[in-house]
Model the fold of this input.
Amino acid sequence: MLDLIEIACPNCLSSIELEFNNHGSTVRCEACHSNFLLEGHLCHYCHAFYKNDVDLCGKCGTKMMRTCGKCQTSNWAGEEYCKSCGVSMDLMDVSIQRYHEESALFREAKLEQVREVRAQQAAESAKRMARFEQMEVERRKRLLEQEKGQQRRDRLKMIGTVFYVTALILVVIVIRIIF
Done:
């Protein structure tokens, strides 16, 4: 089964069906009978055509270039062999590489979510701690006021007791003097 794609003729804009991996070859438009060289690359996902090399497809975001694992040369993602060293650019390798890239992006996104949650929890914890500290300050103020009130009451009791004892002593002295 052939993988056919549809592009527009650059002269008359008529639709032309091509095999997917037909870049770099001469194409004939049956509508206007013009021939043109298909330069550039097609996105292997959405079939958007790009005359110049691009890293990502502007239409679907698919990676348009991939790096040869052997010589590190940048190649079009649809190439079967590296243009520099000729090593096979197996689709399984590409799939595995994409899986690892997506896994790494997923892990990084999850780590970022964890960082955000931790930052939010730290902020909420700081707010709770500030509330507890304010409550502790207020509690200590109440205790201090209660302690001062108790000290006043104790002084008044002491003064009352001293007055009462003094009065008793005076009564006893007066009674002895009289009798």
